[in-house]
Amino acid sequence: MGDAELDRMVPELNNILDWVEQLGEVDTANVEPMTAVIANALRLRADVVDADPLTGGNMRERVLANAPDAEHGFFAVPKVIE
Amino acid sequence: MTELTELGVAQIRDGVRGGDFTAAEVADAFNEAVAGATSLNAFITPTPEVAARHAALVDVDRAAGKDLGAMAGVPIGMKDLFATRGVRTTAASHILEGFVPEYESTVSHNLWSAGAGMLGKLNLDQFAMGSSNETSFFGNVVNPWRRNGSDVALTPGGSSGGSSAAVAARLVPAATGTDTGGSIRQPAAFAGICGIKPTYGRCSRWGTVAFASSLDQAGPMARDVRDCAIMLGAMAGFDAKDSTSLDLPVPDWEGTLSADLKGKRVGIPREYRMEGMDPEIEASWEQGKAMLRDAGAEIVDISLPHTKHALPAYYIIAPAEASSNLARYDGVRYGLRELPAGAGLQDMYAATRAAGFGDEVKRRVLIGTYVLSAGFYDAYYTQAQKVRTLIARDFAEAWDQCEIILAPTTPSAAFPLGEKSDVPLAMYLNDVFAVPASLAGLPAMSVPCGLNAQGLPLGLQIIGKELDEQGVLDAGRAIEARAGFTAQPEKWWA
Predict the structure, then answer these.
(1) A30/B contact by beta carbon, under 8 A
(2) Among the listed residues B280, B104, B268, B259, the one whose alpha carbon sits nearest the alpha carbon of residue B189
(3) Which of A49, B242, B391, B478 meets the CB 3.0–4.6 Å disulfide criterion with B204?
(4) Under a CB-based contact definition with an 8 Å cutoff, are residues B173 and B104 in contact?
(5) B440: contact with A, CB 8 A cutoff
(6) Which of B132, B160, B164, B183 is the catalytic position?
């Protein structure tokens, strides 16, 4: 963010944070934080290669179809190690 | 054939089945309506050719005597948050402006399997973050409704504002929406239509651009309660690809729809009666009580003591999840890449996000990362999740006294575009009645109940027990049958 953007946004963010401070007044002693809104047992996927054909493997072209830059079948990024 | 655009989901389905008209004729009529309403800016990407192709498949099936699906021949609008294979999916953002998915979201896949067609991708608040549609990278949608004798442009609500405007203006018979903290119900109320958010887990989130994953739920927006019941049935269902999808059968909500509420108790939460409440909203709430009493229900006073703290808890939890979800937009695998000359990987991430995200998205990512940071995690995030537990407990205790809760959907009717966009906090307060049910994962719907003195629609909200969409739809039907809401915005757009 540039300075002009920060000048505008900092007071907005402070306002929002001041406002959420009111949560501190709620007595939450002995209250567990929510982990699941609807009780639901988590499942495990079948331990099989390509158990779901939609999300399985062997679709390199489709995975790379939206890449801003792809080379040799990989995602390409600027040099990371000098 | 313009009169076909006056028909809703059930009427189109029945007419196509009965041979009164073809799916192709219906698609043509709605495609024409979409093309003639560009000034509303309800669509980011119209897809008339997709609608025509879907319709042709239905007409071929019917001619061959095949069984037709629950939505056969019904063309709909698809909120541009659902990935649609081969059709760009933007989430109304610059960062996904050129994204063309290689896969189909489960919800849209289910709808096409039921015979629905796609008229196009509907505008929304950017990444579904907003309550007025003004955060869209593609410009705001305009509400087809106007105040009596005024041409001031009003918000269609948000985030599903393209959906609400398109249904109200008869550009589509129905549309998909998503609701994280009111994004189906508030725009439905502002546009005089119905919309239901089902129990969390009823509709798969797979292939829907993620905002706050513990809250996001898809649902239908349509002109009446029956149409919502039909479309929700087509959207919902277990999906192994979403780990929070509920492995339960989808009830026949349309088949068992009943406006008879004998033996039902309707709770009126006293904490929703806020100081300085708009008298017209209060009056509509009183009318809603009278309608449900007339339908055979008993009205009881209830308390949801933590209501006041739902909104601040939401504005910690939702941005926290958003900041985590949106970390995926890094300019590497899909979406926009900004690569200044000589930039390294970190510079590329920063430049891509600076250019690709709008102000409201940046605000929420910053708030979210802040409340999740090591020094503040317990004070903000853990405390908010504890308050969320208390809000869910409030509802659980209320169900000892009632089966359904009635409340206003919004604190006001649709407001002028630009009125709240300069003060983020003022915009957030618009979701005050919608957020508690979202935090508790409960089904909730908005149904139009009448017009205010300025001629704008007002909505009533019905909240139900988890998995009791039927109870919510039934109470919605009871209100609808008594409110007799048939008003339509006068056509001014082109």
Answers:
(1) no
(2) B280
(3) B242
(4) no
(5) yes
(6) B183
Q: For residue B1, is pLDDT > 70? A: no
pLDDT tens for each residue of B193-245: 999 999 999 999 999 999 999 999 999 999 999 999 999 999 999 999 999 99
Report ipTM (2 d.p.): 0.94
CB-closest option in B345, B362, B384 to A78: B345
Chain B residue whose CA is closest to A52? B241
pTM surpassing 0.95?
Answer: yes
Top-level class of domain B2-256+477-483: alpha beta
Domain range summary for chain B, segments of one domain joined by +: 2-256+477-483
Mutating which of A3, A26, A43, A60 best tests the B interface, going by the most B Cβ atoms within 10 A?
A26
| 8-state DSSP, B416 | B
CB contact under 8 A, A9 and B382: no
Catalytic residue among B105, B132, B159, B164: B159
Residues of chain B above pLDDT 70, percent: 100
In sequence order, what E strands does B238-282 have? 265-269
Q: Residue B219: beta bridge partners?
A: B177
Question: What's the mean pLDDT in B111-134?
Answer: 98
Q: Give yes or no for a contact between B135 and B141, defined as CB atoms under 8 angstroms apart.
A: no
Output the CA–CA distances (angstroms, integers) from residue B123 to B63, B74, B158, B177, in the order listed. Answer: 35, 20, 10, 11
CA atoms within 13 A of residue B252's CA, in its CB half-sphere: 3
